Each structure stands twice: as C-alpha cells, then as structure tokens.
Amino acid sequence: MKFQSFIAFLLELDIKKSILPAETLVNTENIHATKPFIQLMFKTIIEPFKIKMVESISMSTEEQRMKFLEDAHYNPFLLKSEQVIIDLLTDSGTSAMSSEQWAAMMNGDESYAGARSWERFEKAVHDLTGMPYILPTHQGRAAERILYGHLGGEGKHFISNTHFDTTRANIEYSGAVAHDIPIIEARDFSAHHPFKGNLDTIQLEHLIGNLGEKNIAGVILTVTNNSGGGQPVSMKNAKDVQAICKRHGILFILDSCRVAENSYFIHEREKGYKDKSFKEIAQEMFSLADATVMSAKKDGLVNMGGFLALRDKSLADACTQLLIITEGYTTYGGLSGRDMEAIAVGLKEVFEPDYLHYRIISTRYLGENIRHKGVPIIYPVGGHAVYIDAKGLYPHIHVHQYPGQALVCELYRIGGIRCVEIGSVMFGKYDEDGKLIPAPIELVRLAIPRRVYTQSHIDYVVEVFDEILQTKDAVKGLRITHEQHFLRHFTAHFERIE
Ligand code: F0G
C-alpha cells in the first residue's frame, strides 16, 4: 500500500496560499503549532488504519465493460457492483466500519422498546446535536420525508444553499417549492473562495420579502453542500442564516450528514476556530439550528441509518406520529439495535483528528492531481468528492445530450470506474411543451467511500484521466429512452447518439 507524498504534493502546489483570500488566510505555522492531528516525521501521510478484512475487486476488460454498459442502458446505477473496479458512485453507506463498531454491534439490544442500544444512540446524538427530541430513521430521506412531509404542502416554500436530490424530491412531492440560493462564487468553478457552500443571505432576505415569511416552511443549510460541489459552509454564514430565520420566525434546519468534514474546513480556514476541536465546531453549528436531518451513512460511518433531531416539542410530537406510522416505534424507528450501536461509535470516530485529516487530504489529493493534468474541477476541492465540470471537458456535447452522463460512461468504459452525473440528468425538468430545461451546471461526481480505498486505487483513477483527456474530442452525447417522473437518474435508460 503506497500512500505517498500527500504533504509534499500539497506543499508543491502551495494550496493554502492559492485557495484562501488574504483576510481568511490561516498562518501555516500556526496550523502546525496547534494542529489537532499528529504529524509524523515524514512527508507521507498514511491511512490511519490497518486493514483486517478484505473484499475482492473483480477485474474486467474494456470489451466486457462495453457490453455491461450496453446491458445497463448506459446508466451505471443499473450495473452490478461486481462489474465495477473502483466504485465512486457514492460516499453514502459505503464506509468500512471499524473493529470497534463491529464489536459494538455484537452488543445490540433488539428489544422493541427502551433498548440499551437506543440509550447509547440517543446519548451520542444528543451529545453532538444538543437537541432534546431524537427520532431514529432508516436513512436520511426517511427523516426528510417525515419533516418535510409535515412542514410542506401546497403553497409552502423551502430555501437552501442547495437542496440535495432526495431533499428536493421530498419537498416537491409534498407540493411545496424548493429554492436554491448558493452564493454567486459557487457558480464559478475556479473562483477562490474558502466557503463556496455558503447560502446567499442577501437573496435570502429578498426571497423572504417576496414569498412572505409565513409561507416559508424552513431554511435548510446543507453542510457540506453536496450538490454544490461538496463545498463547506462557514460558521459565520450559519450564524447569519440563523439570525435572519430568527428575525422572521422561520425554522432553521441543518442537513448535517457531512458535518464533521465541514468542521475540518472551518478549523482550517475560518478565523477563531483553530483552537477548537472538530467536534466542538460541529456542536457550535448544531447549537444554531432548530432541527437537523442526518443521514448517518456519511459521517456516521455506517452502512445504514439516520435521524431527525428537533428542539420544539410540538413539532417533535407531530413528527413522532409519522415516525411510528412509517418507520417504527420511537426507540428504534427504522433501525435495529445493532445499527444504533454502530452509529453511536461512528459519530465519535468521525471526529478523530487523524482520521478527519487523512479524509480531507486524500480527497484533495485526487482533485489536485487530475486538475494538474487539465481536468476542469470545482475548486477548491470539497470534502467527500471531486466534482468535474463535464461541460468544460466536453464543450462539443450540447446539454440536451447530457455531457455529464457521457463522461460517467467513459470513466466506466476506460477504467471500470463508477460515478454519478449531477447535472441535467439528475436535475433537468421539462417545460409545458416537453422541452428540457437543463440544470444550471453539468457535473460528474467522484465520491470517495470512507476508509475503503488506498492511494494506489486513487493513483489508478488519476491515470485513467490521461486516457479520458486524450480521447475527449471523439466522445458523443446520449439521449434518454425511458424515465420516471421523480429522481429519474436512478432508473433512466439511455442510448448513444451516433
Ligand atoms: N442530504 C444530503 C446532503 C445527502 O447527500 C443525502 C444523500 C441525503 C440527504 C439523503 O440521505 O441517502 O441516507 O437517504 N446522499 C447520497 C449521495 C445518496 O450519494 O450523495 P440518504
């Protein structure tokens, strides 16, 4: 396992200087003096874990993959996992659990009511969020369905830095409208801004004025901003959003599934946080919110699970009714006892400084390396994934022919790499005449599962991009031949446009 020269590489690129404006620039010497993680004597940053159990990867030839892709209707969601060499489809539910988590699972108490595992889970979630009412759900979208199903409905509006696809779908399914207002710098892929995930607070005030505060069911801050490039949100932005919500009596909701990764960036980039632990930073962010929805499949370091946490009793009572009807009884909801044990441990491990440092630096390593080759990416690199500007890479493919989906197919054909389009396939809509209204951006996401791949896997991905770049001018677009109304990217069928 070679996991070389992250720091040498980063120092070479002088990342800190290049991504941070002067006013937020953190003195590198200070970082070294007060860093919460241990810097070994050598430049190489190693994975802070040993591998105790392995899962085989099945190799395939390009010829086999072309057949697999055709059978999957050019939609990698329809591939079998054994047909994939490196799976970067999602960082959700794909983490490797630790021996501590597996050990805790053996202590799972599967009692219907009042299980010990519930007590441990509730304590861990309460300790982190500070919220009194905790509803366990089988994953994030179940918490979304309960909360947004209850708050939403015709005539209601939600406002976010960017709604994730399931968040938007749950809101729209209720009849409500979802508005995305990321800061303007988020639209410029190469703009240097330390917190490109921030919500535009000026637009927020305007929208509240236009829509009327009583029609706004909630403001959702997604940390990090997944659909906006995995970019972090600053504490200052969260505080500003909270102040506006408070003034207008609007519920402030944190979508916290990557809150630990977001805390790393605050520690790294925002003034006043370098002496705080990652967990303290997360706790401060939770203290601002009225409610939080968390998919534990991300920073909970588990394969399944989530929760909804609330401060208000009457809202909690209404949501609890829905929990019991659709997920399960209050002390397990959508989870078994062993799942709750694994989450309780995962929520602690994710804040371990050596883990979190390795996590962010290794994602950055992939992004910086492919950017160096000339692949256009959202910059600076976010926490859990590298986002490629597919339209920038394939300017000759019209948005109606899905440049992102074309890149997704090429990465699979050339390297057996599976990833996901975040563009007009995922977010495109049709107007009344059936004409596509494309998404504002055409991205492809390479999401890195937590604690799963080593540097040689990532070096392989980097190498595949040499071929992607060499062959890019010959790549053609795709057309959709079959689709569903909601979340069409999961099941759509495509054909190549020759
Ligand atoms: N919110 C955000 C920001 C997410 O990224 C996700 C899931 C959810 C909510 C829903 O959580 O999957 O547990 O129901 N994101 C995954 C992804 C699917 O690939 O980014 P879930």
Short description:
With 498 residues, the chain is an alpha/beta fold. Helix content is 41%, strand content 13%. The chain has helices at residues 6-13, 15-19, 28-34, 62-71, 99-106, 116-129, 140-151, 165-173, 201-211, 235-248, 259-269, 278-288, 313-326, 337-349, 353-373, 390-393, 403-415, 424-427, 455-471; strands at 86-87, 133-137, 157-160, 177-180, 216-222, 252-255, 291-295, 306-310, 385-389, 417-418, 420-422, 429-430, 436-437, 443-447, 478-482, 493-496.
The radius of gyration over CA amounts to 22 Å
Q: What's the number of extended β-strand segments? A: 16
Proportion of residues in β-strands: 5-15%
Largest sheet data: 7 strands, mixed
Distance between the amino and carboxyl termini = 42 Å
- What proportion of the residues is helical, as a percent range? 40-55%
* CATH homology group of the largest domain: Type I PLP-dependent aspartate aminotransferase-like (Major domain)
Low-pLDDT regions: 1-34
Give the averaged pLDDT, no decimals. Answer: 92
Number of separate structural domains: 2
Based on Cα principal axes, name the global outline. Answer: globular
Structural class: alpha/beta
